[in-house]
Structure prediction request, 409 residues.
Amino acid sequence: MDIERIRKDFPVLSRIVRDKPLVYLDNAATTQKPAVVIDAIANLYRQYNSNVHRGVYLLAEETTQAYEDSREALRRFINAESTQEIVFTRNATEAINLIAYTWAEATIKAGDEIIVSIMEHHSNYVPWFRLAHKKGAAVKIIPSKTDGTFDMDAYKSMLSKKTKLVGIAHMSNVYGTINPVKEITSLAHKAGAAVVVDGAQSAPHIKIDVEDLDCDFFVLSGHKMLGPTGIGALYARKAYLESMEPFLSGGEMILRVTLDNVVYNELPYKFEAGTPNYEGAIGLKAAIEYLESLGRDNIEAYERELTAYGLEQMQKVPGIIIYGPTDPSKKGGIIAFNMEGIHSHDIGTILDNEGIAIRAGHHCAQPLMIDCGVSAMARASFYFYNTKQEIDILVRALKKTKELFGHVA
Ligand code: C6P
Prediction:
């Protein structure tokens, strides 16, 4: 991994902000885009733009082909069996809502139980909470262990015949914990429950094999893996998609409409009503190819090294409190923290003055904030284009923050 060369592929990384070189450490929120992604989108509009699956002219064929090539790229990326199992959505949130409003709506009954972990992003919590409320079902929350890892014993004790669904983040967007989803899935299946894996944070960083994970549903967001915003995906086993009612209806999702009947389209189009975001899909394909060209094992290995270095260096900052595992083998490149006596928004503002972009707030994971007894955290999150030098800049700025607020703490 020649990081200096790789960084040149990302135009925004050479920006100067607040008179300092940009240090972008908010990759869990969204990632920056390489020129190949930007160019793929510009090229679509300059060369061949048309609607997909409709026209019979050359431009329409080209755009349709590019859109479907993206589906195939994503199938390969997560090792799904068939492109019929890949539904394009706006993002991970929409993919989870699709499951909630179709399969879960038809399946979950009064007295049933849905199990989620305390680490879930609101996207994998609120839809289940709402559904349970509507149906008279219950949501059970798996705690995490004191080191921020998944509590397997607690999970096992919650599983029962009542469990219909298990929703689990593959990688926590706060703790960075990588959860043992294969084991979680296997236990859920033994109890007769379906499993939704939220891969929004894992797909950009670790190799995904939905066949091996054996999950029923897997969701991701393109913008977190170098792709454009507004494109994400739902992977679902074909048998599930076949049994599910459409989520949205209108154009594209039908095969035939008569005066008194509607025949739904084949998979996956039954779930893609309206003109899809083919621009986003085409950008996402370029992102996937870029990630594959770097080598996903190389990305994983480099990020593990970066995370280990970040944990080691950040722990040296006086008064810092780090949340989640401090063992780099148990997590991805996400480090959430607070500093004694300093609000995370103040940390974010001071770092911004140094050209450093991090996120501060509740990270759309308020149940976890409550569990940690805080209302907010600061969070640095890395991607393969970050460097140890950038972590040094972050650590220096954190020490400066501590000095500035020293009298308060
Ligand atoms: N987390 C973060 O800063 P969308 O917004 O649909 O692209 O992704 C939702 C989502 C779902 N699951 C997990 C684990 C996530 O981290 C996110 C998005 C961002 O942490 C934005 S809130």
